[in-house]
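anyone seen this seq b4? input:
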Amino acid sequence: MELTEILISYKNKNQDAVKVSSSVDVYNFILNHWDDDTLDIQENVKMLLLNSSNTILGVYDVSRGGINSTVIDLRLVLSVALKCLASSIILVHNHPSGNINPSEQDREFTKKIKSACKFLEIQLFDHIIITRYDYFSFADNGYI
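predicted toks r here
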């Protein structure tokens, strides 16, 4: 019996390094990496992967959903973070409705991923909900 060999690789192209130190930094950065045409009509989730000095290693498109929801596969999120050797992650998703307040599902998922990250020794730096003109930070509001 022959088993499939698994190879893990990651190439850091080390483009202009961007360091984040606040939710404002994240909001300003992520708006430049969001499809402006879908911000108000389709819920999407992205993940920023950070090294130990809070420099962004990359941005990963986690999921694209519908008008008011999307599905996030926790295993996929964490496998990407592990593959990139990220020290911490920041989840960002939009609310096409324009309402920045987190839903109960947003709060529950944040608790779930925070617990999983802790087990894997990856810090959940923040979870941010964005709209075109404003944002909500779970960290700034004491949820993380």
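The first strand starts at residue 44 and ends at 50. The mean pLDDT is 91. kinda curious what u guys think
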